[in-house]
Write a structure and sequence with these properties.
The complex is a heterodimer.
Chain A (H helix, E strand, L loop, with lengths): L1 H14 L1 H29 L11 E8 L7 E3 L4 H7 L6 E16 L2 E10 L3 H4 L4 E4 L10 E5 H8 L8 E4 L3 E9 L12 E4 L8 H6 L7 E6 L5 H15 L2 E4 L2 E4 H4 E7 L18 H28 L1 H13 L4 H38 L11 H26 L4 H6 L10 H34 L9 E5 L4 H4 L2 H9 L4 E7 L10 E5 L9 E7 L4 H5 L3 E4 L32 E9 H6 L5 H4 L3 E7 L2 E11 L14 E4 L7 E6 L4 H15 L6 E4 H8 L1 H35 L1 H9 L4 H35 L10 H28 L2 H6 L2
Parallel strand pairs in A: 4-9, 6-8, 17-22, 19-21
Antiparallel strand pairs in A: 1-2, 1-10, 1-13, 3-4, 3-7, 3-10, 5-8, 6-9, 7-8, 11-12, 14-23, 14-24, 15-23, 16-17, 16-20, 18-21, 19-22, 20-21
Helix pairs in contact in A: 1-2, 1-11, 2-9, 2-11, 2-22, 9-12, 9-14, 9-22, 11-12, 14-22, 14-24, 14-25, 22-23, 22-25, 24-25
Chain B lengths: L16 E13 L4 E13 L3 E5 L6 H8 L7 E6 L2 E2 L5 H11 E5 L10 H10 L5 H14 L15 H14 L4 E5 L7 H16 L3 E5 L3 H4 L4 E6 L2 E7 L3
Parallel strand pairs in B: 3-8, 3-9, 6-7, 7-8
Antiparallel strand pairs in B: 1-2, 1-4, 4-5, 9-10
Helix pairs in contact in B: 3-4, 3-5, 4-5, 5-6
The chains are: A alpha+beta, B alpha/beta.
GO molecular function (chain A): transmembrane transporter activity
GO cellular component, one term (chain A): plasma membrane
InterPro entries (chain A): ABC3_permease_C, MacB_PCD, Macrolide_Exporter_MacB
Chain lengths: ~850, ~240
């Protein structure tokens, strides 16, 4: 019996090639899209699962509520917290903190800059990275050891064993390789190539960082004992932090850090789907995963609707078969089984094609997403089961309605007549389904346009400075190097190919920020005022192309415009006994517009000449006089609101140089920058980036998501049009006689084309009415997530509707023209 | 298939009736028009009889055949089939009785284009629980009977009309029905092929199969033992031919 179903199904497929092709291609493209999204989603949801006892491992995160700013959560903690937790939580089995530093590595002639993660020894007990050389659990216990990834070991030592080899770090510390770990799998949030023990002599400023409860700069992991509930733990953790986090002295008096910082733990397994900007790796938010899953379902729904529509439209062609089967005794259930099987079979054919399509585009898709997606359905029974399950589901979804429709024929009329005894089936239902398809397509089109528009807006928004031809020189990793930053900038600025250069402690596009406490004279100390601390050199604003909106720039000829530190306030100094409690350093300050508002000035002009105190560390304060106000600029993505900031000239804090190169000879200018660097630091590689590249990276993921969204929405529209094409061709065929009659009665070709095109324009027009409000509501909600966002332009909605209509016309019109031109006599002889 | 009353042709013992229609009426209703297709029709067909139904277009022949063939329900009246009143039965019950007892032959053959001759005939056995081997034998036997075995691998379009109708007959008889319903079986055939088909039906009747045939052709009606004339939905004459 089943063989008979398959025979009939296959012969029907071959006989009605156009219909089969439309269905199979539609299903294949739909399934392929669905599989690609599925691979993406599956990849995102399986991060870090390979780690032993992954469900007991947590990362400590910190919610920072800086006064006057929206709360922000970071994946970092204070370094001292890790040690302070010791003994306080018996339910913690292991905990490890790590900090990140850039170091220069040398072996023989090879010189590279590396990002080193210095971690507690327990780190390698929590994370069972597979080791190729050395002993994992103890590898971090040797303070003079260093652990490399496979690739980095190969970079320095080729194929020779690396264990025990020596690497000179920052020209002063000889470290011995104590382990080599295998390349990290692509689906882990851990992103590092070099591990060092936290007590390593090469780690800088460890003692200061260990004593600083205000610096949120390390990453901490804990592994809980079996059976410990994370929510319970978080309650105890919070309670503990209230007393464990110390109070610090500030110009405003005592600040309780626990009022600002709230720690908690989050599961390792959710790190990837709970993106926090400061994570080692940018994850993918659940909303994105849900969105793309929904798109996958919608694309499949469109393909299934094609199937339903074409199958019911073609019902007349199967009517005789159904009737004969009924007459010879087929029950309705048997017929339903037959047609559903047929639909599943067709979907299976589609699946084969889909698998080929996926194989074809997977390399490009993986590269585009920057992920390593695997599609080994033969060796991955889970994936194979999902594919088959999906196929059966789609086959049943698309085949059930036609099956009931077809099996419902009354055989008497069909068998009597020579041709169709059945009308076109439920034409109204078919048009309803076309409306649904186009409503989905139009809504996706609007969504794509808005997502893309917002992305372009964000990318092209005036950041408040000119990001073109701006080079940032970094890598001033040691104190000695930082002291020369200004000199490096001055040397670079002399080159004729360079327009301007300035030392600085900030560069836009990074997530580092340094905040300090401010006290306004004559105001109570009850309100905590915190601003970003941005030490910059005299020429910084000119170099960056930032605009002053009030007052004046810093002037290197005015001795009061920059900070003059006493010797003990320089790095490494000790506060001498007898220093006054409220030691103050006078200097000029420039605020951004947000800071002017935050500090409560009525206007930019009103702020000029005013003074206030700001924390300078080591119990000292700056006594600032406001000399100017700079236009707000974006430190990071325009997604993030602008923070209040103060800018002042304090050379000891500089750790980068911003260079504006002239557009004429950029390679020459870069060579000049590298030369200047070499003159100062011949033993350290220069690290320079174009600022627009770095800023671009902030939008990489948004661009990816927008592009992916556009691609899948495009597919949805193509599949919908495919269905419309099939339906139009069927309708034209079915109306041949009517068209012939109309022509005999005097209708012209354009008349006929208009008739057919109008028939298919109606559902598209109705689809607009459904799609618009849904898209309006949904996308309005989405845009709410952006601080700076585009408006929803009604023209966009209208445009999507016009595009859909145009596509529909094109699809149907060609067909209609062909049919309309046929000789009427042919049509009339037909029946 | 189980769960329904099995109807084995036990016949109406007293009269030996295969079917008996009592005051059978069929009314078609659309929103505005009510058409009476059959008006109090009383027909008895005995087991093993060969009955021809004649009448002008629109007289209700097809409606009558559809009801006899259990493809349609009467509006009122009784339809006794093999001793059971099936007039009020639902589709599933009727389908079950139909497939065990009735074979159909149509004017337009109604072969399935996608299936070969063999497969078309086999279709009639697929919905009975018959093992593949026996199915094959029975299909061969039926094809043999209508002398079309040499074409069993062909598709319907490759056959002449007469050949197609012979395949259709093979399909109708392969399930060994007690009754054959033929709806203008020769209507699409030339006279030579038409005669051939009529001879086959007569042979089948000779083997004991009850046949009810609708036809426009007087010469072909003459093959039957009794002719029922229908006019405007009513039986106007019944002529028993001297056999």
């Amino acid at each position: 019996m089943f063989r008979n179903y398959v025979t009939v199904a296959l012969r029907n497929l071959v006989k009605h090639r156009l219909y089969s092709a439309i269905n199979i291609v539609g299903l294949a493209v739909g399934l392929a899209a669905c599989i690609l999204i599925l691979l993406f989603v599956r990849n995102e949801l399986t991060f870090d699962r390979h780690i032993a006892d992954a469900e007991r491992v947590y990362q400590v995160i910190m919610r920072a509520q800086l006064p006057g700013r929206p709360a922000d959560t970071v994946a970092n903690t204070q370094l001292p917290m890790g040690d302070a937790m010791k003994g306080a939580f018996p339910e913690v089995e292991l905990r490890a903190a790590m900090v990140q530093q850039n170091m220069t590595f040398r072996t023989g002639e090879k010189l590279f800059s590396e990002t080193v993660f210095a971690a507690d020894p327990e780190f390698l007990q929590i994370f069972d990275l597979p080791f190729l050389e050395g002993d994992r659990p103890t590898a971090l216990e040797d303070r003079s050891g260093i652990i490399l990834s496979e690739e980095v070991a190969r970079k320095y030592f080729g194929d020779e064993p690396a264990l025990g080899r020596v690497i000179t770090v920052d020209g002063q510390h000889d470290l011995r390789v104590s382990g080599v770990f295998k390349k990290l799998p692509p689906n882990t949030h851990l992103q590092f190539d070099v591990l060092a023990p936290i007590g390593s002599p090469a780690v800088r400023n460890l003692e200061q960082t260990r004593a600083n409860w205000g610096a949120i700069s390390s990453t901490t992991y804990v592994k809980l004992k079996p059976g410990v509930d994370a929510a319970d733990f978080n309650q105890r953790f919070l309670a503990w932090s209230k007393t464990a986090f110390p109070e610090i002295r500030s110009p405003n008096g005592i600040v309780k850090l626990s009022d600002i910082f709230t720690p908690s733990i989050r599961p390792l397994l959710s790190i990837n789907t709970d993106p926090i900007a400061t994570s080692m790796r940018q994850g993918t938010a659940m909303t994105e995963i849900y969105t793309f899953s929904a798109v996958a379902v919608l694309v499949l729904a469109i393909a299934s609707i094609n199937f339903m529509n074409l199958a019911t439209a073609r019902a007349t062609q199967r009517a005789r078969e159904v009737s004969v089967r009924k007459v010879v005794g087929a029950s309705r259930a048997q017929l339903v089984t037959q047609f559903v099987s047929e639909s599943v079979l067709l979907t299976l054919v589609g699946l084969v094609l889909a698998v080929a399509l996926v194989e074809l585009v997977l390399p490009a898709y993986s590269a585009f997403l920057g992920k390593e997606l695997s599609f080994n359905f033969l060796s991955d029974p889970g994936l194979a089961a999902i594919l088959l399950g999906l196929t059966v589901l789609v086959g049943i979804a698309g085949g059930t309605y036609p099956a009931f429709f077809l099996s419902g024929f009354k055989p008497a009329a069909v068998l009597k007549g020579a041709s169709s005894g059945v009308g076109g089936g439920s034409g109204r239902l078919r048009m309803t389904l076309v409306v649904v398809q186009f409503a989905i397509s139009i809504a996706l089109m609007v969504a794509t346009a808005i997502v893309y528009g917002q992305f372009l807006y964000a990318q092209n928004k005036d950041l408040g400075f000119d990001k073109e031809n701006l080079v940032v020189l970094e890598g001033f990793s040691t104190r000695a190097m930082r002291e020369k930053a200004r000199s490096v900038a001055e040397l670079i600025a002399k080159d004729p190919r360079v327009a301007a250069a300035s030392a600085t402690a900030i560069t836009p596009g990074t997530f580092d920020e340094n905040n300090t406490n401010v006290r306004m004279p004559g105001r109570g100390s009850s309100e905590l005022l915190v601003v970003r601390n941005e030490p910059v050199d005299f020429d910084f604003f000119d170099t960056m192309g930032m605009k002053l909106v009030a007052g004046r720039m810093f002037d290197r000829n005015r001795g009061t415009d920059y900070v003059t530190r006493p010797e003990w306030m320089r790095p490494g100094g000790q506060r001498p006994a007898g220093t006054p409690e409220d030691f103050q350093m006078p200097a000029a300050v420039i605020l951004n517009e947000t800071a002017v508002k935050r500090l409560g000035f009525a206007s930019n002009e009103a702020a000029l000449g005013q003074t206030y105190l700001a924390g300078a560390g080591q119990g000292a304060s700056y006594n600032f006089t406001i000399i100017g106000v700079v236009q707000d600029f974006h430190f990071r993505s325009v997604r993030d609101p602008i923070a209040p900031a103060q800018f002042y000239v304090d050379p000891v804090q500089f750790d980068a140089v911003a260079v504006r190169v002239k557009p004429g000879d950029v390679p020459g200018a870069l060579a000049a920058i590298d030369n200047a660097w070499k003159q100062f630091f011949p033993d350290t590689p220069a690290q320079r980036v174009f600022l627009d590249d770095r800023i671009q990276q902030l939008y990489d993921q948004e661009r990816q998501m927008a592009t992916m969204f556009a691609a899948f929405a495009g597919l949805a529209i193509i599949i919908a049009c495919l269905g419309l094409f099939g339906l139009a061709s069927f309708t034209a065929e079915r109306r041949t006689k009517e068209i012939g009659l109309r022509k005999v009665l005097g209708a012209s070709v354009p008349d006929i084309v208009r008739l057919l095109v109008w028939q298919f324009s109606k559902p598209v027009l109705v689809a607009n009415l459904i799609a618009w409000p849904i898209a309006w509501y949904g996308m309005g909600h989405w845009l709410q997530g952006f601080t700076y966002r585009i408006d929803m332009n009604p023209a966009l909605f209208l445009g999507a509707g016009v595009v859909a209509l145009a596509i529909a016309w094109l699809t149907v019109g060609l067909h209609a023209a062909k049919v309309a031109q046929a000789k009427p006599i042919k049509a009339l002889r037909y029946e | 298939m189980s769960g329904f009353p099995m109807v084995t042709p036990t016949y109406d013992r007293e009269t030996n009736h295969m079917l008996k229609l009592v005051n059978l009426t069929k009314v078609y209703r659309t929103e505005e028009v009510e058409t009476t297709a059959l008006n109090s029709v009383n027909i008895h067909v005995k087991d093993g009889e060969f009955v021809a139904i004649m009448g002008p277009s629109g007289c209700g022949k097809s409606s009558l055949l559809n009801i006899i063939g259990m493809l349609d329900n009467p509006s009122s009246g009784e339809y006794w089939f093999a001793g059971e009143d099936v007039a009020g039965y639902g589709e599933r019950k009727l389908a079950d009785i139909r497939k065990r007892n009735i074979g159909f032959i149509f004017q337009s053959f109604n072969l399935i284009d996608e299936l070969t001759v063999f497969e078309n005939v086999e279709l009639a056995l697929l919905y009975h629980d018959i093992p593949a081997r026996e199915r094959k034998e029975r299909v061969k036997e039926a094809l043999e009977k209508v002398r079309i075995s040499h074409r069993e691998g062909h598709l319907p379009q490759q056959l002449s009309g007469g050949q197609q109708q012979r395949v259709a007959i093979a399909r109708a008889v392969v399930s060994r029905p007690k009754m054959l319903l033929a709806d203008e079986p020769t209507g699409n055939l030339d006279s030579a092929n038409g005669d051939e088909v009529m001879r086959m039906l007569t042979d089948l009747n000779g083997e004991g199969t009850t046949i009810v045939m609708v036809t426009h052709s007087m010469p072909h009606a003459q093959y039957a033992r009794r002719i029922i004339n229908l006019f405007d939905g009513q039986v106007v004459a019944e002529n028993l031919r001297a056999a």
